[in-house]
């Protein structure tokens, strides 16, 4: 490593290179580089916003637009229970993450070709199929990443790496949002260019991650689907994991709430959030200003991060309800401020849950813990249609009140967790 790289590591990680394993500074920077690329790519093709807009522009039936987020979320979480045992059989699990990143890049190339050559239902089917493959690859990356992070970076420096990467990715997405809002070029051209850049980002990330120095350790052989399902017993056999899953499941309300803020804005006559650039910008700015701070706090106590993020999310949603009751929800500043605060809480939940699970899990069971937790949350997310039905029948306010209660309860459950950082 160069002296400059060492200085960067020491400045941002909070550690001295001479006090850690010789490979750690390079690995830490490798994690920051690879994650910065993938987080930038995630924002450039975001299914909730960018791909939804793209399918609408391609005149795809609304049913395919509605399938994007469920495909992305369920596909990224549910397969982990079955892929984890096979990944556990690898001596160096960085190859699973690198391969998954390459597959995601390839699927974005497919989506790019679809955008340039297809229309209507055919485009909807092709994009959803490509996204399904991308999401399964994402599940492989997710279940392998925490294990590689735990093997290559010390306990007190992991949150700084993931937080810095999230902030770097957010800066890129902010630039994308500003281009969407101000550039004289047609929006379709900008979106197609963004998807192309996202594909390149994933492919470069695969190369960077493959360069990590990960110690080879004997793995265990893969298991069948019955044994994989049997791992769900960990939710009962490992009580701390079960409590963490309950807390995370309740805190998922911070991720589910933003569309209902948009619905509330529409009901009040505020159309600002329907603009693609404004939506992307609000999320990216919140990530930029909070992710690194949340990451450093998580290195001290990821449990407290979960508590603070849950309470912050509940407060943001409660503020939205108060503004609605006061008739201020249609003002220029009200809901933008609420959405910004909610996304800060959301990024805190993401940082806290990732670092807590990595630090809490025994090293030899980290993959199994990750897979079980993510599978349980994936099942929960499949039931989110209930919330949509509730909103349609009773209005966005009832749903937001329920989400605020869930976030508060999630913070309460997190308070009962033990400290994972010692």
Task: Describe this structure in a few short sentences.
The protein has helices at 3-13, 24-45, 47-57, 62-77, 80-88, 94-117, 120-152, 158-182, 187-210, 225-230, 234-237, 239-251, 253-256, 258-267, 276-325, 334-360, 366-382, 385-394, 396-415.
Notes on the protein architecture:
It is a single chain. This protein is mostly helical. The chain contains 19 helices and no strands. The longest helix has 50 residues, at 276-325.
What brief labels describe this structure?
single chain, about 425 residues, mainly alpha, Growth Hormone, Chain: A, 2 domains
Fourth-tier CATH superfamily name of the largest domain = MFS general substrate transporter like domains
DSSP summary: helix tally: 19
- Tell me the β content: under 5%
Poorly predicted segments: none
- Please provide the ordered H/E string of secondary-structure elements: HHHHHHHHHHHHHHHHHHH
Report the CATH architecture of the largest domain.
Up-down Bundle
Radius of gyration: 21 Å
Structural class: mainly alpha
Q: What percent of residues adopt helix (DSSP H or I)?
A: over 70%
- The backbone outline, from C-alpha atoms, is globular
Q: Report the oligomer.
A: single chain
Number of strands: 0
CATH topology of the largest domain: Growth Hormone, Chain: A
- Domain module count: 2
- Write down the overall mean pLDDT: 84
Biggest sheet details: none
CATH class of the largest domain: Mainly Alpha
N-end to C-end Cα span: 31 Å
């Amino acid at each position: 490593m160069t002296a400059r790289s060492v200085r960067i590591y020491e400045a941002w990680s909070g550690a001295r290179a001479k006090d850690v394993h010789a490979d750690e500074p390079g690995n830490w920077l490798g994690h920051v580089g690879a994650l910065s690329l993938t987080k930038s790519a995630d924002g450039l093709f975001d299914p909730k916003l960018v791909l939804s807009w793209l399918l609408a522009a391609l005149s795809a039936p609304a049913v395919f637009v509605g399938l994007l987020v469920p495909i992305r979320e369920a596909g990224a979480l549910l397969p982990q229970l079955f892929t984890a045992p096979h990944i556990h059989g690898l001596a160096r699990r960085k190859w699973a993450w690198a391969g998954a990143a390459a597959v995601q890049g390839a699927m974005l190339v497919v989506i790019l070709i679809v955008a340039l050559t297809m229309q209507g239902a055919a485009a909807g089917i092709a994009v959803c199929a490509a996204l399904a493959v991308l999401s399964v690859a994402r599940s492989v990356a997710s279940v392998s990443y925490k294990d590689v992070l735990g093997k290559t970076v010390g306990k007190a420096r992991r949150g700084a790496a993931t937080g810095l990467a999230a902030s770097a990715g957010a800066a890129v997405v902010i630039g994308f949002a500003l281009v969407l809002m101000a550039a004289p070029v047609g929006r379709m051209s900008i979106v197609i260019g963004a998807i192309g850049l996202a594909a390149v980002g994933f492919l470069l990330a695969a190369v960077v991650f493959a360069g990590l120095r990960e110690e080879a350790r004997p793995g265990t052989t893969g298991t069948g689907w019955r044994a994989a399902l049997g791992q769900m017993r960990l939710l009962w056999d490992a009580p701390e994991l079960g409590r963490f899953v309950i807390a995370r499941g309740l805190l998922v309300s911070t991720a589910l709430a933003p569309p209902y803020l948009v619905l509330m804005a529409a009901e009040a006559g505020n159309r600002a959030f329907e603009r693609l650039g404004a939506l992307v910008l609000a999320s990216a700015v919140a990530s930029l200003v909070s992710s690194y701070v949340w990451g450093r706090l998580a290195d001290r106590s990821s449990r407290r991060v979960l508590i603070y993020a849950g309470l912050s999310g509940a407060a943001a949603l409660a503020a939205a309800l108060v503004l609605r009751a006061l008739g201020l929800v249609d003002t220029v500043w009200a809901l933008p401020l609420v959405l910004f605060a909610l996304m800060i809480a959301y990024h805190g939940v993401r940082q806290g849950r990732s670092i807590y699970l990595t630090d809490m899990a025994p090293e030899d069971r980290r993959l199994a813990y990750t897979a079980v937790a993510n599978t349980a949350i994936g099942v929960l997310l499949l039931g989110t249609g209930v919330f949509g039905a509730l909103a349609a029948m009773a209005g966005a306010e009832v749903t937001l009140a329920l989400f605020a209660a869930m976030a508060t309860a999630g913070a309460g459950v997190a308070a009962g967790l033990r400290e994972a950082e010692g």
